[in-house]
Sequence to fold (286 residues):
Amino acid sequence: MTGLTGRALRAQAQERLTVAGVADPRRDATLLLAHALELLLGRRVAAHHLSDHLDSPAMNGLPEIYDRLVMAREARQPVSQITGRRAFWNHEFRVTRDTLDPRPETEVLVAAALDLPWRSVIDLGTGTGAILISLLAARKAARGLGIDISEAALDVARDNAARIGVEAEFRTGNWLDDVTGPYELIVSNPPYIARDEMADLAPEVSRWEPEGALTDGGDGLSAYRAIAAQARRVLVPGGHVLAEIGWQQGDSVRRIFEAKGAVVRLIPDLDGRDRVVGAVFPHGMD
Fold:
């Protein structure tokens, strides 16, 4: 045992993270302490048992492990990348630097999809597979395809699907190029941040998440143009597209899909901001 208690270690970490500019230093210091204990003990420590470790002298090896984790967070690496996992919808997903970190606002898209009738779904820019896997876990009889331009991201998605017990196909591709239908639903959380907005992102995002999953290097709308241009070719008549959007992009994305013959609605997040565009193509495949 060391002379410092777990609580003292956490207080030191919290101060370091505060200096580093981390938004919620106490929360992150606690999460990282729990992860350090997991690495040391080889098992997760239940939240209600963490207080025992806070009040006791730190176990041998814990300060060194904890210090490495806190150093990573001081460099503004996201907690999910440090721990290697992120909770999303009803499951926990493995995340790496090759994937976008699944975010709570994307659950709006999952909820909207589960309100629709469908038995086949394609997820464009699947990343961790969080959207597709969440949907297929809820619709056991459905079939799904996840497409991503990054093979490294697809490896993560395949691993997540296997761990969660979902059968899905994953393959490399560029949006709907080389995809044949019919599918009843297309979902996507594409790179929608404009190039001139990248400088405003938090370091956790701009330094650590894959740039290609964040921005198209232009106006942030190219993915919607690509999806809208080909959606009817792969959808059944009356098929749906659900795509996450930036909160100021609603009107622009609406016009893109309406120009291709879709009936469009905008779905807000819990803060009332436009978050998902829902497009229906009444006439289906060309």
